[in-house]
């Protein structure tokens, strides 16, 4: 049986945190799809709050302590990455950004990455487009089309947005699994949104520039 390694990085600060909860759901969704395809998926989760001091020291000293170096190498060697951050001051958390500041800028080149974020209001969902996509675009990662944002109303049985969150999680997980299978990662579980946009928590999220350009050229 083929095997794939997925590493999850989450920057939540609480125990438990909504970022960790979202990360776990995304990892499980990708693993389930891979398992159905006969691919063994090993999913490992790391919470950056446990590495906060090492990350700060690395930014000052220029080299990583053994524990952080091991994590960096695990991320580099993984077949895919899931990265989830809480929203602080309308952007990714400083801890999240600092981790990707200390990783080698070429280490994620071409790696499939699924991004997610959590926040106190659905209005912060644009952090996916304005902060996270540019960050991983700079690192030349291969982002899956669907990014997932979860607001407070998305959590809990009977929550108003719970069904929508579950649908987005399954869609994103299927896309990541598709990339790991060598496919397009574009399986659709729901009706497609309007051209050039995908739905995220009832708002609209821009597709990657390459897809928008391709659509323009076809018209």
From TrEMBL:
GO-annotated molecular function: oxidoreductase activity
Keywords noted in UniProt: Flavoprotein, FMN, Oxidoreductase
Stored SUPFAM superfamilies: Flavoproteins (SSF52218)
Top-level division of the source organism's lineage: Bacteria
Domain NADPH-dependent FMN reductase-like positions: 5-155
Record-linked PANTHER family: FMN REDUCTASE (NADPH)
NCBIfam families xref list: LLM_duo_CE1759
Name of the protein described by the UniProt record: NAD(P)H-dependent oxidoreductase
Origin species: Arthrobacter caoxuetaonis
């Amino acid at each position: 049986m083929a095997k794939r390694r997925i590493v999850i990085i989450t920057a939540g600060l609480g125990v438990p945190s909504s970022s960790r909860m979202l990360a776990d759901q995304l990892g499980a969704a990708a693993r389930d799809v891979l398992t159905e395809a006969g691919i063994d998926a090993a999913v490992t989760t790391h919470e950056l709050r446990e590495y906060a001091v090492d990350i700060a020291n690395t930014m000052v000293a220029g080299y990583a302590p053994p524990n952080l170096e091991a994590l960096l190498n695990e991320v580099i060697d993984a077949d895919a990455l899931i990265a989830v951050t809480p929203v602080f001051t309308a952007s990714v958390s400083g801890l999240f950004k600092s981790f990707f500041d200390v990783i080698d800028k070429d280490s994620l080149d071409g790696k499939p990455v699924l991004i997610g974020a959590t926040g106190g209001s659905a209005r912060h969902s644009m952090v996916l487009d304005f902060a996270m996509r540019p960050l991983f675009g700079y690192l030349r990662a291969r982002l899956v089309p669907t990014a997932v944002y979860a607001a407070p109303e998305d959590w809990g049985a009977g929550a108003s947005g719970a069904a929508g969150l579950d649908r987005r999680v399954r869609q994103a997980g299927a896309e990541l699994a598709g990339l790991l299978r060598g496919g397009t990662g574009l399986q659709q579980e729901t009706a497609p949104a309007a051209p050039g946009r995908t739905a995220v928590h009832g708002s609209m999220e821009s597709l990657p520039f390459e897809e928008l350009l391709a659509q323009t050229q076809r018209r």
